[in-house]
Amino acid sequence: MSRGTALRRLIAHEGRWLMSLGWWVARRRIGVAPGERALGYAGAQAAILYGLAFVCVVETVGIGVLLAGKPVVHEVMLFIDGYTVLTVLGLQAAAVTRPHVLGAAELRLRDGARREIRIPLERIASVRYDLRFVREQREDGGEVAELAVAGQTSVTVELSEPVVAVRLLGRRETLRTVRFHADEARAAVTAVREGMAARAGIAGTPVKQA
């Protein structure tokens, strides 16, 4: 991928989380149509990000006092610190306003404003509650994607057929297993299984659990 393409994708990402701040204030969600079910995941990281934002604000005030006699440097640092606080809040806003979405035909898994993985329900072989703590994000383009929140995933989806997903900078990867976090993981698993059964036209028939 060219540097220009990567830069455009990063700028688009900045625009998405900035837009999320407005939707957050308006208490609205992005991309959740009537009849679709939102599966939230922002709760697990809220305390961490709010704490980080508070630390950044305190730092901004402290630096402002230290640089009071240097107006040019003070203005530059004020802008940088202010944008940092905005970025931290934007990460939370993107997660709140862009939940995972369970529709009639597909499961859309999101990682804030960074990426989205679309999985047709008929390609899901199994879905289960599976709490895992992720030490580091996978970057090898393998067949497993982990959409961790606060270092953890809680639902594992195994696919009967792979899906192709695109990372933030445009790297394409073929996935057969997707792990993600949901604040109400067990309820999310139940909802996905019900969606699978309804999609197959056999509501009420047990769906494979593992």
If you compute it from the alpha carbons, what radius of gyration comes out, rounded to the nearest whole angstrom? 20 Å
Tally of contiguous helical segments: 4
Number of distinct beta strands: 8
Mean pLDDT score, rounded? 89
The end-to-end span amounts to 37 Å
Q: Quick one: biggest sheet?
A: 4 strands, antiparallel
Topology order in helix (H) and strand (E) letters:
HEHHEEEEEEEH
Low-confidence stretches: none
Fraction of residues in helices?
40-55%
What structural class results from the helix and strand content?
alpha+beta
Question: Approximately how much beta-strand content do the residues carry?
Answer: 25-35%
Widest β-sheet, arrangement of strands: 1-2-3-4
Estimate the global geometry from the Cα principal axes.
elongated
Summarize the structure.
With 210 residues, the protein is of the alpha+beta class. The protein is 42% helix and 26% strand. It contains 4 helices and 8 strands; from the N terminus they run αβααβββββββα.
